[in-house]
Amino acid sequence: MPYPHWLVVEDERFSSLVLFNGQLDHLWHAGHWCEGPAYFAAGRYLLWSDIPNDRILRYDENDGHVSTFRQPSAFSNGQALDLEGRLITCEHGSRSVTRTEHNGCITTLADTFEGCRLNSPNDVIVKSDGSIWFTDPSYGIDSDYEGGKRRSQMGCHVYCLTVAGELIRVADDLEKPNGLAFSPDEAWLYVSDTGATHRDDGPRHIRRFLVEDGYRLSGGDVFAESDSGLFDGFRVDVAGNLWASAGDGVHCYAPDGTRLGRILIPETVANVCFGGISRNRLYICATTSLYALTLNTRGHHVIGEAVAPSDIRTSKRA
Ligand code: MG
């Protein structure tokens, strides 16, 4: 069967990950820079940031309704869920990483390192041990558009907030560290570098680090180089394939670094997130819009990844 024009198969392996009859849904379009998607399985809704408009939005998967979850949002950017299902948020405005508690209170988890203010935490992930890993480029303090223009107190690095509450700088050789994700076995950490926003021949790639002793990184070779815009946020599926944002859509890479294919989106993509009842729905934050596409694979996630709702029903009947 022919694929739709917006689905580009570049390696035969991509055919098993996509559906030839899948629909690319344009769900919403009134944002200025959509980013930071996080999916809540229990409520079947997606939260995402519209950074310049200083708000977090909520898409209800049950009825398609979009509403405002939080405004102002301290110019929130990347988001994730921790092991207890609490929302972890990168905030440009407060230059911090926060946690929204079950009672709605917001707790600051990290805003300084060695006495200096963080720049503007950009994207965040949670490891299976509960540690919180985030990037800290300067985009939220470069201008007032995505936060507030401020002076940077230090370089742009990658951090880990350990379960003991210690903030560790885990990588300091990136120009503008941005999206990040672990391989499913957490042996590798992928980090994108969007340094080309500030230097024409700056980095526009994803690097891959070996994770040792929990928090120590080594290696860091370039894993993938973008030929369309920049890699911003990305996620990993259960087989370890990367689904990365890019200038012309979403690029899918096998763990061996081969680009398998692309999903062409008519707007620059900033981030993606797996959701849906089977975690096979790829939500795509693209400039003004939210798109979604059902795939023939599932997103990797440390919370509940092994048990899909259909499996739960089956086990209850047994
Ligand atoms: Mg980002």
Lateral strand order in the biggest sheet? 1-24-23-22-21
- Class per helix and strand makeup: mainly beta
Q: What general form does the structure show?
A: globular
What's the CATH first level?
Answer: Mainly Beta
H-E string: EEEEEEEEEEEEEEEEEEEEEEEEEEEH
As for the CATH topology, it is Neuraminidase
**CATH H-tier superfamily:** TolB, C-terminal domain
Question: What is the number of beta strands?
Answer: 27
Annotation keywords:
single chain, 318 residues, mainly beta, Neuraminidase, five-stranded antiparallel sheet, four-stranded antiparallel sheet, 1 helix, globular, binds magnesium ion
Note down, in words, how this protein is organized.
- This protein is mostly beta strands and 318 residues long.
- It has a single domain, classed as TolB, C-terminal domain (Neuraminidase, 6 Propeller), CATH 2.120.10.
- 3% of the residues lie in helices and 45% in strands.
- It has one helix and 27 strands.
- It has one helix at 309-317, and strands at residues 7-9, 24-29, 34-40, 45-50, 55-60, 66-70, 76-81, 87-91, 96-100, 106-110, 112-113, 116-117, 124-126, 132-136, 157-161, 167-171, 177-182, 188-193, 205-212, 216-225, 234-236, 242-246, 249-253, 259-264, 271-275, 281-286, 289-294.
- It has a five-stranded antiparallel beta sheet, with no helix packed on it. Strands 2-27-26-25 form a four-stranded antiparallel beta sheet, with no helix packed on it.
- The longest helix is centred in the C-terminal third of the chain and has 9 residues, at 309-317.
- The protein is globular.
- The termini are far apart.
- Bound molecules: magnesium ion.
- The site of magnesium ion has 8 residues, from strand 17.
